[in-house]
Specification:
By secondary structure, this protein is an alpha+beta fold. It is built from 11 helices and 9 strands. Strands 3-4-9-5-6-7-8 form a 7-stranded antiparallel β-sheet, with no helix packed on it. A two-stranded antiparallel sheet has the order 1-2. The relative contact order is 0.07.
């Protein structure tokens, strides 16, 4: 984005796309905002300070494009404000979104002005339509849109992905959201492509380690990324496996027609099973992991 595009982004996110509304945020005349959107004038130091203090705007991003637009998202504390944020992120005018939703514009105006409540079924419609339009990129987080919980996009943390980057929503094994739905975390397709030779988007799962049997190298609650197209046992590689009803992370060693499942300490015993016994299932090979600090 150049400077005038960054101002346009903020006018949409903080002023519903209206120069006058945004001008009120920075206590300036509308003409100042109009000129800034055209690139003919830059916002004053005082205006930037207002944006930072009132709306948590990152002033360095406004001036140079460095970092993220907002230091935090605390200003977006209503459904209407969050809808404006969504429009800014996708660079949509109000009429673009209402056309996409096949709604009368007055309906969206009421929602964006917090004159009507966004119900869960309407939020689902918005998410579905936007996901289809964007071909699966950056799926909106319904809990954030409705209640401000979490981050705007699935898998997003404090640093958001570039809006033009293709992402893949990777499902978690045995881990559900509070509403009993499958939990997903989004990854850059470029990152996944670097980690595996298989370019299929649906060959990945995430597994959260349930005990400390692989410490000190892997600890309880660490998250590992699996490529489940790699399910054939290979010696000296890490796999998530199911033995009986239990899922676990283990290093594998092939021993003729047997497979040894190796733990890294005495909290759990190694297991040796016949390869064709049917007593185990290899879920996928570990290609990446992360840990909360």
């Amino acid at each position: 984005m150049d400077y005038k595009q960054r101002i346009g982004y903020l006018v949409t996110a903080l002023g519903q796309g209206k120069n006058a509304t945004f001008a009120d945020r920075i206590e300036q005349n509308r003409s100042v905002v109009t000129r800034a959107r055209k690139g003919a004038q830059k916002l004053s130091k005082k205006s930037l300070e207002k944006l930072a203090s009132n709306c948590s705007v990152n002033t360095e991003w406004v001036k140079t494009g460095t970092g993220e637009p907002f230091n935090d998202l605390s200003w977006f504390d209503t459904q209407g404000k969050r809808l404006s944020y969504v429009r800014a992120e996708f660079d949509w005018k109000r009429k673009d979104l209402t056309a996409l939703m096949e709604w009368p514009e007055r309906r969206f105006i009421r929602l964006e002005n917090d004159k009507a409540e966004l119900k869960p079924d309407l939020a689902e419609q918005i998410i579905s339509k936007i996901t289809d339009k964007r071909q699966g990129n950056r799926k909106l987080n319904k809990e954030w849109l409705l209640n401000g919980i979490g981050y705007p996009f699935q898998g997003q943390g404090p640093l958001r992905m570039d809006k033009n980057e293709t992402v893949v929503d990777v499902p978690h094994i045995l881990e559900l959201t509070e509403t009993r739905e499958t939990r997903y975390t989004s990854f850059s397709l470029n990152l996944l492509s670097e980690k595996t030779a298989d370019n299929q988007k649906d060959c990945f799962h995430l597994y959260r380690i349930r005990d400390d049997s692989m410490s000190p190298y892997f600890n309880k609650r660490d998250l590992v990324l699996l490529d489940h197209s790699q399910y054939k046992p290979i010696s000296d590689h890490l796999f998530v496996v199911r033995i009986g009803h239990d899922y676990m992370l283990r290093r594998i060693e092939r021993m003729n027609d047997q497979i040894k499942f190796i733990a890294y300490n005495n909290l759990s015993s190694d297991r040796i099973l016949e390869e064709d016994s049917g007593e185990f299932e290899i879920i996928g090979r570990v290609i990446w992991f992360c840990r909360d600090l």
